[in-house]
Write a structure and sequence with these properties.
Helix content of chain A: 40-55%
Number of helices of chain A: 9
Radius of gyration of chain A: 16 Å
Strand order of the largest sheet of chain A: 3-2-4-5-6
CATH architecture of chain A: 3-Layer(aba) Sandwich
CATH topology of chain A: Cytidine Deaminase, domain 2
Oligomer: homodimer
CATH superfamily of chain A: Cytidine Deaminase, domain 2
Structural class of chain A: alpha/beta
Largest interface: A-B, 70 and 70 residues
Strand content of chain A: 15-25%
Largest sheet of chain A: 5 strands, mixed
CATH class of chain A: Alpha Beta
Order of helices and strands of chain A: EHHEEHHEHEHHEHH
Number of strands of chain A: 6
């Protein structure tokens, strides 16, 4: 077997035009979450991935740095959660793996991060993490959030990363439920094993 | 600012020729670790990233599926740890995010996974995780391993992912020490904040 040398994370074609047409302000955390949740909903409407959306915002400069949606099945990469896509695209746009160099940068996600995305947050240089739906909301819909430390949220705070939960939680949960009721695939290896 | 639509994970140019010239067998875990550790050492000799190497191996089919090295600084992506690169390239080679579909697949890493890579393991479909250097070895050299659950190893076993530690640990630690003694950059956001 020939070994692969490269792979790509790419947003579905609809995403950047969708963001360009988003005329609402992004000045507040609530406004930013409205976009993240709208991305999660559009991702299932367009059938390009799971019901998760995220964005990276520079609070100091007042500018959107990137957006992400879950593209695990489309990209064929298990790491392609919305948060990982948004973080990587923000770093690509700035040509710097350390987002802290760009200002005071916040990751906004429609759902509480899974164990992988939680672990990725400190390495990215963001100073803030905001989420909508809670872990239990995702799990009630059948998603696996993985194993995080009991004090995962405090561990981020100790690293200087401010956290805020429950922003537009109901809107975010509505998208999760809509996905499950539409028989959206809950993909994870275990489900194929049993 | 124009938002990025895509980004790429790519191995340094020396890696695949290095693997092609590796004539030693990969039949045992110890033999596979020898290659992972050799990749970690070559990555610092070539100055293409941090002292970490990994590979993905199909134990059922007896075939190497991918290799990875840490390319955080070269790729400009904080997620580009050796394990994430190896998992993603194995998935790219197989055109499937679920490695469990390919056989009985093992991730071999020169070092115990950080919090992010630990969280990524269950999503990838691997059935085994093997590492060389321990967390404490990496931390003694100044690396930040992040916050994992106290029972992180057992949590993988509960998911049907077999774990093995301390494979060629001394060889792996030698590379970590060699990197630090050569004044290799320990990159993480906190170090730039202080």
């Amino acid at each position: 077997m020939k070994l692969a040398k490269r792979c790509e994370l790419e947003l579905p074609n609809w995403v950047l035009p969708f963001v360009a047409e988003w005329k609402q302000p992004l000045d507040t955390v609530d406004q930013r979450m409205a976009l993240a949740v709208a991305l999660s909903g559009a991702n299932i409407d367009r059938k390009t991935g799971g019901p998760f959306g995220a964005l990276v915002y520079d609070e100091q400069g007042g500018r959107l740095l990137s957006v992400g949606v879950n593209v695990v099945t489309q990209a064929g990469m298990s790491l392609a959660h919305a948060e990982m896509v948004a973080l990587s695209l923000a770093q690509a746009g700035l040509a710097d793996w350390n987002l802290d160099a760009a200002g005071r940068v916040q990751l906004v996600s429609s759902c509480e991060p899974c164990a992988m995305c939680f672990g990725a947050v400190p390495w990215s240089g963001v100073r803030g993490l905001v989420w909508g739906a809670r872990r239990q909301d995702a799990e009630e819909c059948g998603f696996d959030e993985g194993n995080k430390p009991v004090d995962w949220r405090e561990s981020l705070e100790r690293r200087g990363i401010a956290t805020r939960a429950d922003i537009r939680r109901e809107d975010a949960v509505d998208v999760l439920k809509r996905y499950v009721h539409s028989d959206g695939a809950i993909y994870h290896p275990e489900s194929k094993r049993s």
